[in-house]
Amino acid sequence: MKRTEIASLGEFGLIDHLTKNIELKNTSSEKGVGDDAAVLSYANKKTLVTTDLLLEGIHFDLMYVPLKHLGYKSAVVNFSDIYAMNGQPKQITVSLGISKRFSVEDLELFYEGLSLACQEYGVDLVGGDTSSSLTGMAISVTCIGEGEEGKIVYRNGAKETDLICISGDLGAAFMGLQLLEREKAVYSGETDFQPDFTGKEYLLERQLKPEARKDIVKFLSEEGIVPTSMIDVSDGLSSELKHICKQSKVGCHIYEERIPIDYQTAMMAEQFNMNVSTVALNGGEDYELLFTVPLYLHDKVSKIKGVHVIGHITKEGLGLVMETRDGTEIELKAQGWDSIGEEK
Amino acid sequence: MKRTEIASLGEFGLIDHLTKNIELKNTSSEKGVGDDAAVLSYANKKTLVTTDLLLEGIHFDLMYVPLKHLGYKSAVVNFSDIYAMNGQPKQITVSLGISKRFSVEDLELFYEGLSLACQEYGVDLVGGDTSSSLTGMAISVTCIGEGEEGKIVYRNGAKETDLICISGDLGAAFMGLQLLEREKAVYSGETDFQPDFTGKEYLLERQLKPEARKDIVKFLSEEGIVPTSMIDVSDGLSSELKHICKQSKVGCHIYEERIPIDYQTAMMAEQFNMNVSTVALNGGEDYELLFTVPLYLHDKVSKIKGVHVIGHITKEGLGLVMETRDGTEIELKAQGWDSIGEEK
Fold it and tell me: Are A2 and B47 a contacting pair, CB within 8 Å?
């Protein structure tokens, strides 16, 4: 494969090269890459801003994450935060820190993934820069989105008796990661890393190419539903429930049997000797939407494709409770992927 | 000194701890730290967005940069980009990647610097997160600002015969860096790193605690001047002139003798056997404003404190020219600090 050294283009040449085909499509994007700042126009809307810093070895492993997928995922996980506010992502900026081992072609792949995500979600790339890094790759993404007055959904609005809803299914991305880590260990040292993932495609896709739930935000809007609280599941269901309950000053009661889990996730957890509910509660990186709606919306929300009602909100003093399959009530503990607490 | 391990607080505990005293002051800041995204209200204004990724060993050296200064500088260099659009910075988000060698107290110092900068420039900290890093420290800052319709200044509006103006003086931050690097080499291995910097305070201040030119933007506004183009000097005067000329499709003619240089910068360059004009043209990190105004504004712009007229804009074909003290015309080459091209 062709390898063009980054030094041959220089910093400004590199950015020009990577961003030359970018067209701005959103009316709120007035000026993109190429000045001291991007210029946006959010005249009658609220502006939503979220940012993420992704570091090699902590948030991703380039041994099994293709750069194109990494570009896609870096963008999508930020879109997910904007949807979690009941908003629409409109612009992103991306800063990269890269070492000499990367070529121009590597970065082209990363930008391909980034552009694909932008295209599929209707987002403009309005800023980007690259600088060198002494060690691993660093990716900083900021996403700007729009929200409508009165329709922005925070984490703090859940009320007693509200229904707790979750989109999609949980735990698959975590099992995908376990699978990749296991194969990496097995194949360590071999140059031809081509394990057989037949029957596990869904797990890999959830880990390597997650999607943000734009569709759920759209369905909610079509049904005229504004959730009372919402958050995206990045650190695991338990952790996100804890955020909602803490900020809303409420408790919750969920049912283990109602937590949506895909067949492949269950199979894989079995193989790894893991409790599949623990995986679903604490795995993280699902990028599903967890939200609450008033009780009277039960029928309306239940008929939205891909949405499951898994429990309800209770009084603050009652804590975070899960009723297991055998009817026992246990307290939910957020063991979510807490990158700093876990650091070795 | 007390050392509290970050693991003792965990990721969410750490962020709560570091951001607990933050108050939002700007009317455009509706919701800050603590949800999936910040919520801003830029109803009748344009939204400006700029972002920077700062990596240890590339953009800063913790051997001689105190963490409080680093926090201050990380914020200020982003404010500078917003001023360079003729805008006002209003919000920032900060993401940190940190290794185990940092304590909670270290991060408190960083946040102290950050908060001080926010206070002095009237900016709200509306988002922040921390995660672990396997190696050095990584800092990602996004700054959001407001611009008024019709008064935003880009890099592409310079016209033939426009005056080229620069605020402050150039090259001091670069000489400060040289000084720190020299002392670091001399004192390498000694535990008590206390060199004598008497008479060089200005150079160190420009390197360690730079300021953004909020005052110049205010003066311009008071005089009713909207520059035809503007950029902040982060990579060196030559490099920034090149950006303006390229995007405005013009050439420029500047006079070496008019480039503002502080006495300490000149003395230090002499000591280091460096050509002081080369330092001023290519040193970078000055965070001064380089801008152009129509010729008829000569008297008005000249009387603004701290602004120097250093030349004028010419036709595109004429290139970037500097007339030296002896009347020779030389072509300006941007040798600015190009972090990737220079990478070793």
Answer: no
- Compute the half-sphere exposure of residue B259: CA atoms within 13 Å on the CB side of its CA: 25
Q: Note the residue count of chain A.
A: 344
The structure's pTM equals 0.92
* ipTM computed for the complex: 0.90
A242 pLDDT exceeds 50? yes
Out of A35, A127, A230, whose CB is closest to B85?
A35
Determine whether the interchain pair B131/A340 forms a contact, defined as Cβ–Cβ distance below 8 Å: yes
Structure tokens at B49: 């967005």
Q: Do B95 and A47 touch (CB under 8 A)?
A: no
Best mutation target among A8, A26, A47, A102 (most B Cβ atoms within 10 Å) is A47
Q: Best mutation site among A5, A49, A148 for testing chain B: the one with the most B CBs within 10 Å?
A: A49
Query: What would the mean pLDDT of A175-204 be, rounded to a whole number?
Result: 82
Give one word for A44, left, alpha or beta, with left for phi > 0 and alpha for psi -120 to 50: alpha
* CATH number, domain A163-331: 3.90.650.10
Interface test with B, best of A36, A135, A155 (most B CBs within 10 A): A36
Q: Does B244 touch chain A (CB under 8 A)?
A: no
Gap between the Cα atoms of B77 and B220, Å rounded: 20
Query: What number is the average pLDDT over the span B92-116?
Result: 93
- CATH number of the domain at B6-147, please? 3.30.1330.10
Domain-by-domain residue ranges, chain B? 6-147, 163-331
Hey, is A120 helix, strand or coil? helix
* A139, A187, A192, B33, B140 from B126: Cα distances, Å: 20, 44, 46, 5, 14
Residues of A in contact with B91 (CB under 8 A): 49
Inform me whether the C-beta atom of residue B278 falls under 8 Å from chain A C-beta atoms.
no
What is the per-residue pLDDT across B127-144, written as a single tens digit (0 to 9) for each? 988 888 987 899 999 999
Higher pLDDT, A329 or A191: A329
Instruction: Give yes or no for residue B343 having a pLDDT over 50.
Output: no
Kindly give the residue spans of alpha helices, DSSP state H, lying in chain B: 10-19, 67-83, 104-121, 172-186, 201-208, 214-222, 237-248, 263-271, 276-282, 298-302
Query: What is B37-82 written as a DSSP string?
Result: SEEEE-TTSEEEEEEEEEEBTTTB-TTTS-HHHHHHHHHHHHHHHH
Q: Side chain identity at B301, as an amino acid letter? A: V
pLDDT in tens, A24-58: 989 889 888 888 899 999 988 999 999 999 999 99
Please, are residues A82 and A50 in contact by the beta-carbon 8 Å criterion? yes
Q: How many residues does chain B have?
A: 344
Q: Within 13 Å, how many C-alpha atoms sit on residue B49's CB side?
A: 36
Confidence label for A339 from pLDDT (cuts 50, 70 and 90): very low
